[in-house]
TrEMBL record:
Keywords associated with the record: Disulfide bond, Immunity, Membrane, Signal, Transmembrane, Transmembrane helix
InterPro entries on file: Ig-like_dom, Ig-like_dom_sf, Ig-like_fold, Ig_C1-set, Ig_sub, Ig_V-set, TCR_beta_variable
Organism: Pygocentrus nattereri (Red-bellied piranha)
One of the record's GO cellular component terms: plasma membrane
Ig-like domain location: 14-128, 139-242
Protein name as catalogued: Ig-like domain-containing protein
Amino acid sequence: MTSVNRHFISPTEPLSGLFITQTPTLLIKELGESVKVGCEHNDSTYYYIYWYRQRSLGAMDLIATSVGKGSVQIVLPFNESKYSMTRPDVKRSVLQIEKLESEDSAVYFCSSSTSYSNAEFGKGTKLTVLEPNTTISRPTVNLLPPSSGELYNDMKKVTLVCLADRFYPDHITFAWQKNGINIKDGVATDHSALQDPQTKFYTISSRLSVDKTDWEDPKNNFTCTVSFYDGTKYHSHPYTLKKPKAGVRASILTTVRFGYFLLLSKSLVYALFVAMLVWKCKPTKEMSVLRET
């Protein structure tokens, strides 16, 4: 075994004609169980295969290497009693992990290269080892409309927020649609979910920025579809915002303006009242002379 190698690299789309497929893409396991992750590519000239582990978008730790069929090496500090790699042929490999612990929760990447090319990466397999005293829970989802500050100010863009809360584990994805058609422009999703240390539940959000004119068009509907993997299957649910009708929107705008006018009027009246009190309480010159005598 050799020493561990740590790399700060981000897997990208293949630059060559090589395509690496990892199966499965998501795994949920209990403490103490074992797991297998498969890797396959489409070019027999890529005879180097590597397995990496990445925790929380950090460094990628090299677990195992292979320079050809049947040739496998586990890299320190990973040990052969827990990790094993098989290479049944040049284009296939399997990584197996025994006696799973919470610390094994990570994304596992398969990579391949030739002696003269850069390594290409698969899209990864996300493994979650369930924490003690936890239950798999589907998310509570809220789809929030643009704020009044965006709607009633001179802004060209407005933002819709899709908030998923109280779910476990962190196996969730978002997709946005406009009138039933998938859209990616203007979408920003949190890099990782936040976990409550007490409840163990996760929270994550995705945001869609659209032109205000698109949002105000009554013909347009915007939908956030949330998919959650519970260990056996995906649960996908679409959430569509119900926009108020044009007349209702105008009424809301009128109400906001009236409320602002009322608040301003109250402030002016209060200011006048305070000014009058100050004027009445201010001693006159004649009163000052009388007090002196």
